[in-house]
Amino acid sequence: MLASASAQDAVFLVGSTHKATFALNAGNTCEWNVYKVNEFTATKDATPADNDKLNEDDDFLFVGEENKTASIDITWKNPGKYYLIVEEFNGVGGCSTRRAFAIQVAGNATIAFADNTSNDCSDKGSSFTTNLLIETDGIANVKFFPISVYYSIGGVPATNPATVDQDGAIKITGLTINDEYSDSNHIISINSAKDKYGGDLNIISSGNANIHTRTLYGIPEISTVTIK
User: Fold this and answer.
1) Does 163 lie in the same domain as 126?
2) CA spacing 20 to 30 A to 36: which of 61, 118, 144, 223?
3) Three-state SS across the chain?
4) Are residues 29 and 80 both part of a single domain?
5) How far apart are CA 56 and CA 44, in angstroms?
6) Rounded CA separation 66/72 (Å)
7) Beta bridge partners of 37
8) Could you say which residues of the chain have pLDDT below 50?
9) Which residues have C-beta within 8 Å of that of residue 206, sequence separation ≥ 6?
10) Exposure pattern of 72-86 as b/e (b: 16+ CB <10 Å)?
């Protein structure tokens, strides 16, 4: 018997790793398999998805090559529509039950700076906050926050990634202010971005959308004031 899934149960990003778990009845065994479809109305188990840890073009990977336990981890490697099916066997009479989960893997999530420039006085400190544009091309139910954004300042990678929540605000830290009285530009570049499951967001680079210039204007130096 196959318990059906009538619509997508989840949307994941390419490169993400997710855990699937169910309560296995005592004495029973189980096996997980993945099938790929063009539409969720298609036959759930007609086309096995490709699984080979040595082939980057394959669709998914059972982490640790384990697919016969009640709890497994799966890395999704290619965009598409999939059915994840677990079959439970009673081990005695040859009866089994299968459960199907419809999963869409999205490869078109993007990230870019909302604004390419910002500025302030150079005594405002070595950090600032700006906004990112995060798009999933209309695909709903993508639960990937918080996002880790890896960036560089002047070509030098930041020590730690910035954590970005659903509001899209990113705090950039580590600006170097050598002289508060001189103008200076700081070039911040997005290097990569991953969701909380390790899924990849594509960086939009056209029009330098992945680059933000932070200008710190020098502070007028006040000479000695004399009052008579």
Assistant:
1) yes
2) 144
3) CEECCCCCCEEEECCCEEEEECCCCCCCEEEEEEEEECCCCCCCCCCECCECCCCCCCCEEEHHHCCCCCEEEEEECCCEEEEEEEEEECCCCCCEEEEEEEEEEECCCEEEECCCEEEEECCCCCEEEEEEEEECCCCCCECCCCEEEEEEECCEECCCCEEECCCCEEEEECCCCCCCCCCEEEEEEEEEEECCCCCECEECCHHHCCEEEEEEECCCCCCCCCCC
4) yes
5) 24
6) 7
7) 81
8) 1-6
9) none
10) bebbbbbebbbbbbb
Question: What residue type is assigned to position 26 of the chain?
Answer: A
Domain range for 140? 110-217
Q: Which residue has the tokens 């202010």?
A: 177
10 and 99, same domain (yes or no): yes
The Cα–Cα gap between 150 and 188 comes to: 10
Contact status, residue 51 vs residue 8, Cβ threshold 8 Å: no
CB–CB of 203/188 below 8 Å?
A: no
Domains contained in the chain, number: 2
CA distance 130 to 162: 12
Three-point CA angle 225, 227, 228, nearest 5°: 150
Cβ proximity of 80 and 59 under 8 Å = yes
pTM exceeding the 0.85 threshold for the entire prediction: no
Give pLDDT tens digits for 85-109. 999 998 776 789 999 999 999 888 8
Q: What is the pLDDT, as a whole number, of residue 173?
A: 95
Among 106, 133, 168, the domain boundary falls at: 106
